[in-house]
Fold:
Amino acid sequence: MFTIDPRRTDLAQEFKRRPFGPHSPELQAVLNVLRGSLHCQNLLLVCTRPHAEWTLAEKQPHGLPPRLFPHLTFDSLEAAEWHAFRIRWEAVTGQALPDP
Amino acid sequence: MPRVLGYADPLSAAPGETIRFMIGTLDGPRRYRAEVVRLVCSDTGPAGPGLKTVPLSTPIEGDHEGTPQLIDAGSYAIVEHPEAFGGLTRFTLQAFIQPTRVPIRPEPRRQVIMGTWAEDRETGFALLLDETGALALLVGSGPAAALVSTRAPLTARRWYNVAASVDLAAGTVSLRQTPLADHTPSLERPVAVTAAVRAEAPPAGELFLAAARRGVEGGRLRTTWHFNGKIDRPRLSRRALTPAELEAAATARRTGAPDADTIAVWDLAADTGSVRVIDRSSNLLHGRTVNAPKRAVTGHNWDSSEMDWRRAPEQYGAIHFHDDDLHDAGWTPSLTLTVPDDARSGVYALRLEAAGGPEFWVVFYVRPPRRGPRARVAFLASTATYLAYSNYRARMRPSPAELYIGALPIVDPTDLLLMYQPELGGSTYDTHSDGSGVCHVSRLRPIVNTRPTGWLWNLFLDLGLLDWLEAEGQPYDVVTDDDLHVEGAALLEGYAVVLTGCHPEYYSREMLDALEAHLGGGGRLMYMGGNGFYWRVSYPAAQPGLLEVRRAEDGTRAWVEAVGEYYHSSTGEYGGMWRRQGRAPNALAGIGFVAQGFDRSSYYRRTAASRDPRARFIFEGIEDEILGDFGIAGSGAAGLEVDAFNASLGSPAHTLVVASSEDHSNAFQLVNEEMNVSFAGSDGRFSAAVRADLVFFEHPGGGAVFSTGSIAYVGSLAHKGYDNNIARLTRNVLRRFLDPAPFAMP
Structure:
């Protein structure tokens, strides 16, 4: 199985520059792992102020409502995607990405 | 989240006709404000023109006092002959069952198979599954009511023959749960339990299948302890049958010949298109279903020799009940509107707002006068598709959706309401609490996601098309799928051009026939979207407000239809994709669904065919090679779900593919119906098959078809103040299509 090389922070930077595709095949492989991993898989965004603010949340089993993380709000979808990428990267590789 | 909700009935009305609004508040009575507006443009935010509504002055505008209204989800059948079921001292309850939630989690509760038990009266009898999922019988009254259980939980999705023989005079109850043999090896053995009980014969009461009576509130019957799963051949006999007699009844063909001891034996295979539940005994204790359980489903004896319930009804003697089925919320009308005589045809909403939450939009449609002037352009609102997606909650449930979306799912507080008010029911993209697919959806309930705010999808994007028509100064009428299904081509008479929405995915045969007739009569069709004319749907005539879909055989599916249940219960039609039924969208529109992706949209590039003299009118004044590299739906006109030309599926040979999209992202994957064998390199980075084709072709009747092949297309019309190559191209097509000069076949 493909595993992420935590030294490939260049791929993280590629994602940060362009979170919505197209992505290079190498970045896409990383995204397949991060988004398919059991770590932080069930994330979603709740738009808490139209066109202005999105709050990260986690989907719950058994039909329960998502759990919002009120301290994790973002003023753009790009910023929210980048945050999700960072926490998943750390959860999967065990290594935090350098500060942006 | 909104504090006030509602729905409208009927969905569309002409001037002078009346619409009722059923409105309820959350968390107790509260004041709310109501106003009727015509919807022109959605709340695009700074990326587009922004929300545009036009107030319509009506007597219902203003503040009102609202009260909560109940929704009781959960399907069941009721037999309203209480006297037939009272005073029974010796009796037997018998059925085949296939439970699908045993036990209920996370909060275990009882599930009634059949009986008269009434929680409010604390009396009756019921054959049920107890909190552990074991077969049990409850009989008697008050605290002295007896509960006998086999203490052996059943296995989900296995068929059982279950029975309770009751002799209150002798003080005994015998329970039998016998697993039926199937193709899965099992160690499970029959269980039989006999216990002594002391209970009086319960008084008269209505008999329920799959629920118990909870009580009556405000004149409205409420139910509880809903069953999840299938019930087949329920039978009630007048005495305690012996094991041999139970076996004889169970093995009889279909519902068997009722004998003198039979109080009722219900033939659930009969009249599946209706709400009727037929008793084959001489007592004629017929019942009716409530909340649209799934009928025409395989029974305990289905042997896969037939897939069509009409050809082997004896193998389709079951009903699949769910504790979250919902048909008609049954709310009391709160406001009534007579559409003013001078109201323009359009998409309208009753905008509701109460303190403490965002607004709630109750969308309805004003069609042109029944006998009066019409515009020359009709926007055909995709109300079948809006309904199929209504109360879509799958995005809020754990799933690998991000892998095909290519981004984090996004919802808003109004969407969250679905997770706090599960009784609102789901969409045809959701699964029931037992994991089976939702094949019925109803418009007779509050719908949270057909609105001009939130998700860039369906009506939200379609309003971008209306906004552009307004900007063009182009008069238009609005008609609906629902009306097209009922009225056929007559609804479209007089319209030179019919414009679809961005995603007319769900189509009945009647709707397809009507569009074909429109074209055959010289009409013009502008298919303004992607993934259209894809799923076959039906509107059950006996259950107004309901839509049925069976996701059979193939296709890009939120869930897979149960094997043997591909035929619609309401009409007997074979469900699934039109592509698999000889009416691929390509024949009507020139293109059909090929790929989807939801992270970023792309653009079209003109083809050599765009220089064909037949296409000259389309590109008048357009020099650009690249079309639509802008827009509010993923920053491009080609995206979300896209269609392509395919002659082998029926795209007319003379179709001109005047532009095709390219450079799609990795998230765009070729859909599975395009692959006979799974293969690599099927995403937008590698596969040229992942594209939207912009096409035009003439119709033999003098009409013509223009298709965009992309859901995102309409999101580009407003770019730069409607001055862009997508708007120009669309205007060119519309102008020529309005010209009565017939198109000649090439």
